[in-house]
Specification:
By secondary structure, this protein is of the alpha/beta class. It contains twelve helices and 15 strands. Bound molecules: SN-glycerol-3-phosphate and magnesium ion (MG). InterPro entries: CDP-alcohol_PTase-I (IPR050324), HAD-like_sf (IPR036412), HAD-SF_hydro_IIA (IPR006357), HAD-SF_hydro_IIA_CECR5 (IPR006353), HAD_sf (IPR023214).
């Protein structure tokens, strides 16, 4: 309800600014549509619909084809990105603004979205959240009740990061509640979650090694490693810069390499985003629920069977590998706007897609033709 109010408020703001007309929210969808399509689409974000904050590959036009003339969403689609660091509701608003179509929070699946499935296990335990943006708010929204961002956690321990005085951007100290500092210091951290890309690799690797090798009590003796979860393991991704940037997988390699050289047992960790089949299973469930919402079929909520689910991605090692491994009903499509830079007749040798296209718009045009959804 709050998300819908936010969407309405943001739509009003946009119309005041005379920005392009936005399309309908899911709540406004009519029940006139009777037969759900037998297909759905999952769009990767970085390198497919956006580079940095700039739409690419005709993405706004392509997405508009998925709504009818009155702005009713007709094709079930979601964004399936390994990116994150903000709540799904906030990301939905940002995407709506950037792409000119109204996206519901239920259409945004981020690398960290599957962390929700771990709430039962860590609901009241002390956990540390790492990454850019608002990693702790993301985790709190999922239901974790005792989460602290690593920025604040590090400030609880004097001199834990000897380089801190040289970090000109570090302005958080004053904001930390000292009472909380004291209680946190003596409590064991039960798990660490890498929610989004680490901003300060040197500090985060240092503090995570302290947590992980001591059983969750930095500065104490060795102890069993608490569980460590990564939102994903992308070694590189396509941002605004011409060549790819190091991602969370590169950070994982750095952490693992250092941890393994100071600890007798190898680092144990789990990555839940693409290409993990869990991410694709979860995406299928989300798309099924979306169909139930679109077609008001609450009696059989989430039971729709898709003949085909198209995954449109730019990274063969992540989007294509993952959808190939997930198998039926996934149909991987590779664009040439991101990590994959082969020529127009080539495919990836190790993880070939079912189809290689130049842009996301080409991919959507193919899907609409293939599914006989031509206007
Ligand atoms: O950090 C984000 C990046 O690793 C990939 O994002 O949208 O290409 O899955 P995306
Ligand atoms: Mg991508």
């Amino acid at each position: 309800m709050i998300a819908l109010q936010m969407l309405r408020k943001s739509s009003q703001t946009r119309s005041r600014k005379q920005l392009p007309r936005l399309f309908s929210t899911i709540s406004q969808l009519s029940s006139q549509q009777s037969t759900p399509p037998s297909f759905g689409i999952a769009f990767d974000i970085d390198g497919v619909v956006l580079r940095g904050n700039t739409p690419i590959g005709g993405a706004p036009r392509a997405l508009r084809r998925l709504y009818d003339d009155s702005g009713i969403l007709k094709i079930p689609f979601i964004f399936l990105t390994n990116g994150g660091g903000v709540r799904e509701s906030k990301r939905a608003l940002e995407l709506s603004e950037l792409l000119g179509v109204e996206i519901s929070p239920s259409q945004v699946v981020q690398g960290h979205s599957p962390f929700k499935q771990l709430v039962n296990r860590f609901e009241n335990e002390l956990i540390v959240a790492v990454g850019k943006g608002e990693p702790a708010s993301v985790m709190s929204e999922y239901g974790f009740k005792n989460v602290i961002p690593i920025d604040e956690y590090a400030l609880c321990f004097e001199s834990i990061d000897p380089l801190a005085p040289y970090k000109k951007w570090n302005t958080m100290e004053a904001a930390v509640n000292s009472a909380r500092k004291c209680s946190i210091k003596s409590e064991r951290v039960q798990a660490a979650f890498i929610v989004s890309d680490s901003v300060d690799w040197s500090r985060d690797i240092q503090v995570l090694c302290d947590i992980l090798r001591t059983g969750g009590l930095p500065g104490s003796g060795e102890g069993p490693q608490p569980p460590l979860y990564f939102a994903h393991d992308d070694f590189k991704y396509q941002g605004a810069f011409p060549s790819e940037r190091f991602g969370m997988g590169a950070f994982r390699i750095a952490l693992e390499s250092i941890f393994n050289s100071i600890h007798s047992e190898a680092l144990k960790y789990t990555s839940l985003g693409k290409p993990n089949p869990v991410a694709f299973k979860n995406a299928e469930v989300v798309l099924k629920l979306l169909v139930s919402t679109l077609y008001h079929d609450h009696a059989h909520s989430g039971s729709h069977d898709f003949r085909t689910l198209y995954m449109i991605g730019d990274n063969p090692f992540v989007d294509i590998k993952g959808s190939r491994q997930a198998g039926h009903p996934w149909f991987p499509i590779l664009t040439r706007t991101g990590v994959f830079k082969g020529d127009c007749h080539s495919n990836h040798a190790e993880f070939p897609a079912n189809l290689v296209v130049d842009t996301v718009e080409d991919a959507v045009n193919f899907i609409m033709r293939n599914e006989s959804y031509e206007p």
